Amino acid sequence: MEFKMRKIVLAGFALLFAASPVLTAVDASAQSRWHTERQLREERRELRDARRDVRRLERQLDRRDDRRHARPAWVRKGGRYAGGGVVVRDYRRYGLHAPGRGQHWVRVNNDYLLVAAVGGLIGAIIAGR
């Protein structure tokens, strides 16, 4: 009986010893797959963050560009002209209609304003030509 027991125990150890490389290969494969999936998730996260940063920078540049080309707050119809432009005497040369009595055309940057001579009230704005 003792001999049979030894034989069974040795057979069990032999089987365990023979199967161990297969079990470790399966374990290594699963670990490798997990590691690859984790790397893929990290790379996707980095790509998403980079895209978000690019969009943020584009918005900042757009806003900066808008501010650079924006008209001052006082330049709107009904606003008051504060000065700083050049009075346009030859309005026909620029394709502008004749100003009314008490009005004159003023060129500010590349825009033309029809301004009341006394109060500075802006009557019309013609975008740059």
Description:
It comes from Antarcticirhabdus aurantiaca. This is RcnB family protein. This protein has 1 helix and 4 strands, in the order H-E-E-E-E. The protein is of the alpha+beta class. The chain has a 4-stranded antiparallel beta sheet with strand order 1-2-3-4, with no helix packed on it. The N and C termini lie far apart (111 Å). The mean pLDDT is 77.
Termini separation (Å)? 111 Å
Q: How many beta-strand runs?
A: 4
Which stretches are poorly predicted, pLDDT < 50 over at least 5 residues? none
What's the rounded overall pLDDT mean?
Answer: 77
The helix count comes to: 1
* β-strand amount: 15-25%
- The global form is rod-shaped
In total, how many domains does the architecture comprise? Answer: 2
What radius of gyration results from the CA coordinates? 41 Å
Percent of residues in helices: 40-55%
Read across the widest sheet, the strand sequence of neighbours is 1-2-3-4
SSE arrangement, N to C? HEEEE
Which quaternary structure do these chains form? single chain
Specify the biggest β-sheet: 4 strands, antiparallel
Helix and strand content put the structural class at: alpha+beta
Protein name: RcnB family protein
Labels describing this entry:
129 residues; alpha+beta; 2 domains; four-stranded antiparallel beta sheet; 1 helix; RcnB family protein
